[in-house]
Amino acid sequence: MRELLQITILKTNSKIVRTHTFRKFFLTPNSHYFRKT
To answer: Record's superkingdom (predicted)?
Structure first.
């Protein structure tokens, strides 16, 4: 039961981190990556 809880927490954490980095990447003022188009 405890292992299942840890797995769920891990998945949620990774998802949060993923969305956070995604948002951070897209909302940075120095978005010179997108000007290359």
So the answer is: Bacteria
